[in-house]
Amino acid sequence: MFVEGSLLADHFLIGAALLIAASFIAGFIDSIAGGAGLVLIPSFILAGLPTQLALGQEKLVSTLGTLSAIRTFHRSGVIVWSFVAVGVPAALLGAYVGARAILYLDEETAGKIVALLLPVALMIFLIPRTQRTEEGGSAVSDFNRKVLFPLLAFGIGFYDGFFGPGTGTLLILAMHLVMGLSLVAASATSKLFNLASNVGAFIAFALAGKMLWGLGVPMIAASMAGNHLGSRMTLSRGDRLIRPILLTMMILLTGTLMAKYF
User: Fold this and answer.
1) Do the domain assignments include residue 213?
2) Distance of alpha carbon 203 from its chain centroid, rounded?
3) What are phi and psi of 174, to 5 degrees?
4) What is each CA distance from 188 to 72, 79, 129, 165, 245, in whole angstroms?
5) Which domain does 181 fall in, by range?
6) What sign does the CA torsion over 75, 80, 81, 83 have?
7) DSSP characters over 167-191
8) 194 closest CA partner among 76, 85, 70, 98
9) pTM score, two decimals?
10) DSSP 3-state of 208
11) Residues 197, 94: contact at Cβ < 8 Å?
12) Structural domains counted in the chain
């Protein structure tokens, strides 16, 4: 189940405790700026989970962890539900197709793809965002709302199922730059799409047996706690404190993964 000689294989309790802490940090970061997978996937792999199992475990933790952030944003009234209705089905389908695609690859190939995609995902996360004044995107054309946005949602959902890290940021950028939502509204609304794409990938990985349910329960609890705290901060402070922290962590984690697979 675990990679031979890994932290989880040799010191399970220590490894599990570190992954629970990583789940809290990932949930906190994700609710503010997206990017939970940037922390969880390399952490899972480095702790001793095979690549495909690490991808499935990330979906197990993130899918339920996102619910806490959605609850907080829903109470604040900043979610734009009209975008949810047209984009969520497309994101869910795209994620299922993407997850099935990665499951066809062998573990070594999947590991190398993950190691190569992490720097790309990090660059996506670091794309500058400029604040807009529109909260609801009411001036968006019918074509953008009913055709272009569902296509974007399917493509981003496919990426989420195939790999994952940076999905939240891509969703926020799509709703902010293409659909005209403010960053706060885009961040809040993106959580519904994150949930949908996570569910699509979740189903594919669960059917393939790529999840550790027992280990996942405390990780889910930690992720939900981090999401709750981070979503409350988002409404007042944004992501100014998170991006430098995530950048530092990702340089270390990505470097370690590259050394492992190359």
Assistant:
1) yes
2) 16
3) -65, -45
4) 9, 5, 15, 18, 21
5) 7-261
6) negative
7) HHHHHHHIIIIIS---HHHHHHHHH
8) 70
9) 0.72
10) coil
11) yes
12) 1
- Cβ atoms < 10 Å from Cβ of 232: 16
Please check whether residue 16 is in contact with residue 222, taking contact to mean a CB–CB distance below 8 angstroms: no
With respect to residue 1, please indicate whether it lies within any of the assigned structural domains. Answer: no
- Do you know the residue count of the chain? 262
- Cβ atoms of 67 and 224 closer than 8 Å: yes
In whole angstroms, give the CA distance from residue 113 to residue 98: 14
- HEC secondary structure over 223-242: HHHHHHHHHHHHHHHCCCCH
Residue 61 lies in a domain: yes
Residuewise pLDDT in 10s, the chain (262 residues): 788 889 999 999 999 999 999 999 888 877 776 667 878 888 999 899 998 899 999 888 887 777 777 877 787 777 888 788 888 899 999 999 999 998 988 877 877 787 787 777 767 666 655 544 444 445 567 777 778 888 989 999 998 888 877 777 778 778 877 777 777 788 788 888 888 888 889 899 999 999 999 999 999 999 889 888 877 776 666 556 556 655 665 676 667 667 666 7
Is residue 104 situated within a structural domain? yes
